[in-house]
Amino acid sequence: MGNRKLVDSFNDAIDGIIYTLKTQRNMRIHFATAIGVLLLSLFFKLSKLEVLILFFTISLVIIAEMINTSIEAAIDLITDRYHELAKIAKNVAAGAVFIASLNAILVAYIIFFDKLNLVTEIVLHRVRQMPVHLTFISLLIVILIVISIKAFHGKGRPFRGGMPSGHAAIAFSLATAIAFISENTLIITLSLFLAVLVAQSRIESQIHSLFQVIAGAALGVCITLLIFQTIY
Q1: Cα–Cα distance, 35 to 28 (Å, whole number)
Q2: Which of 70, 166, 211, 217 is least buried, going by the fewest C-beta atoms within 10 A?
Q3: What EC identifiers does the entry list (predicted)?
Q4: Torsion angle of C-alpha atoms 203, 206, 209, 215, degrees rounded to 10
C-alpha cells in the first residue's frame, strides 16, 4: 500500500509538470530553451561545475514557473473577483520567475560567451570583408520569400499574422548579417538579443504563434547564411 501511494505521488507530480506545459506558454518556452541550451552544451567542453550550475539554473527557472502557476491556480480557486492582495500575490510570483529567467540568461552568457566567442571568431574570420550590399540583398530576398509564403498560405498580411512571422524573419536576417560583417562580438550579441526581443514581442502580442515565429527566424537566418556563404 505504501509503494502504491509512492507511485501515486510520483504520477501526481508528473501530472503537475504536464499540466503546466499544456496550459502555460512561458513553461513551453522555458522547456524549449532548456533543450536548446543542453544540446548546445554537448558541443563544448564544460567542466563539472559548469554543468552543475547549468542544471541548477534550468531547474530554478522551471520550479519558479511551476510555483507561479500553482499560486495563480490557488488564487483563482478562492476568488474570481479582483482583489489587490490577489494581484500582489500573482505579481510577486511572476517577479520570481522573471528574476530566475534573468539569472539563467546571465549564467548562460558567462558559461558560453568565451566559448562561443572563440567559435565565432574562427567562423567569421573568412567573411568579415564581404560587401555590405549583401545585407540589403539578403533582406530583400527574405521579405519577398515571406510575402510569397504568406500568399501561398492565404493567411495574414505581409507583416502581420500568418505563417511565417515577417518581423522575426527580418530581425534574424539582420542579426545574421551583422554577425558576418561586424568585428565586435558584443555588437553581434546585442543584435541577436534585439532579434529575440522582436520575436518575443510578436508572441506576447498574440500576432503570431511560437511556431510561426521560430519558422520566420529560421527562414531569415538560413537565407542570409546561404547568400553570404554562396557569394563568398
Answers
A1: 11
A2: 211
A3: 2.7.1.66
A4: -60
Give the pLDDT of residue 118. Answer: 60
State the Cα–Cα distance between residues 137 and 159, nearest whole angstrom.
Answer: 19
Show binding-site residues. Answer: 65, 72
* Residue 121, in any domain of the structure: no
77 plus 144 within the same structural domain = no
Comparison of pLDDT for 162 and 59, the residue scoring more: 59
Claim to verify: residue 66 and residue 149 sit in the same structural domain: no
pLDDT per position as a tens digit, 123-170: 555 555 555 556 666 777 777 777 777 666 655 555 566 777 888 888
* The total number of structural domains that make up the chain: 2
**Domain around 179:** 126-232
**Is the distance from CB of 174 to CB of 191 less than 8 angstroms?**
yes
Q: What's the CA gap between 39 and 132, in Å, rounded?
A: 33
What does residue 117 show for φ and ψ, rounded to 5 degrees? -65, -40
Query: What residues form the annotated binding site for a divalent metal cation?
Result: 72
DSSP-derived 3-state class of residue 200: helix
C-alpha distances in angstroms, 91 versus 59, 69, 133, 224, 228? 21, 12, 47, 40, 45
Q: Which residues carry out catalysis?
A: 65
Q: Which pLDDT does position 95 carry in this prediction?
A: 92
71 shares a domain with 99: yes
Domain co-membership, 172 together with 94: no
Please enumerate, by residue number, every residue annotated as part of a binding site for substrate: 65
pLDDT digits (tens, 9 = 90+) for 67-89: 999 998 888 888 878 888 888 98
